[in-house]
Amino acid sequence: MVAPTLQGGAFQRTAGYIPHVTSPRLEFTDVRRRFGRLAVLTGVSGAVEPGGMLHVTGANGSGKSTLLRCLSGLLAPDAGKIEYWEQDREDGAPLGMEERRRRVGVVAPDLAFYAELTVAENLAFFARLRRVPPERGLGVLARLELPLDRMAGALSSGMRQRLRWAFALLHSPRLLLLDEPFQNFDAPGERTARELLAEHLAGGGLAVVANPSALDFDHAERLELGR
Amino acid sequence: MRNASSWAAEATAVFVKEWRCEFRTRYALNTLALFAFTTLVVVSVSLGPLGVSASQGTAVLPVMLWVILLFSVAAGLPRAFVQEEETGTAMALRLAATPSALFCGKLAYGLTLVLALEALLTPVYAAMMNLQVASPGLLAAVLAAGGYGLAAGSTLVAAIIAQARSKGTLFSVLSFPVLLPLLLLSVELTRLAVAGSPAGVALPQLLLYDASVTVAGLMLFPAVWNP
User: Fold this and answer.
1) Is the separation of the CB atoms in B41 and B68 below 8 Å?
2) What tens digit of pLDDT does each residue of A183-196 get?
3) ipTM score here?
4) How many CB contacts within 8 angstroms connect chain A with chain B?
5) Do B92 and A104 touch (CB under 8 A)?
6) B14 and A126: CB-CB below 8 Å?
7) What is the reported pLDDT for A110?
8) Which of B158, B119, B133, B149 is nearest to B214 (CA)?
């Protein structure tokens, strides 16, 4: 799979982003998940290689968000196998669910932040939990043009989406799981987010994107989920 | 060593975040203060110094002190994890935090809240009820150990109920078996402190309870917090 066209150098210059140096890989096979009697995922399989993107499409209720939650480790599948490798592991084994959950970068509509804290305080808090310097998130925030001193509870829906992106990129993850990543953005916001995604892929990262509309990225593989 | 310091930094970040949010909303502080004040007034009016003889006071007043503490804590502490679920911040926490560090950070916050409540409430209660304490040192030890047990037990139960629907009912049902041994020991030790009798085996038993709840919390929390 070939990486998309945008170069990672621009991101590195403007936001101090550390480019990827290892080759991650994600494979999932026959993933199944039910909620009570409702079978949402009925044997979904796919794989993503370094620099590649999997575009998950499907109607409302087809299981796009559920699949991403399973891939992130936020939800355990009922059956099937999800394996995610990061090459810096000495034994070459895939990461466990707990470790995978902490390594991936997630943008999702139901991802919320502390309304009582400012944008900067929220990011500083999560940077401490992620064990990374907060400056990394601040660089992304500057690129997304998000006001640092505004309370998270006072952000518009578009601004909240920008904060989700900053949260997702805070620890320079190699795997991005993006559920409707461009919703609520204005045109400049969407353009910046698309650039960030392209640069992530150009740096050798990989992404799974659940988006109802087309994504004009080269070489994105498509996974259609049925209802 | 570096991992331990990173873990401690994570727990500290959770503790600081909790207090920062609390100072800005004052939800738990107001709830605890209001509940403590109301029950204190009800008890003092009903069982004031003229209504209880000295011998009856030794038997009854320690019980009432722990009843006030228990209900005040039960009104404020279950919010620790419930609020994270209700506001949607639980997802970001699950993605970023080490479960044990999160539990300890929340526990430290709950502990400081309980100790502050005890420090304010106990002298006022003793003065209003004309409660003479023969062994203030033992009383302080009981309040510290009992307060820790209250905070640890409540934090663990709060984590268990966070994802349930009937949170209030479930908290009461689950708290009963968890907190009952603690309350029995704390009441007995408070009686001994008031009477000036030696603590005997009750204090080591209370410390053993605290250790057990902490270990159980650290072992159970990842399972109840994560899917």
Assistant:
1) no
2) 888 898 889 999 99
3) 0.85
4) 66
5) no
6) no
7) 92
8) B149
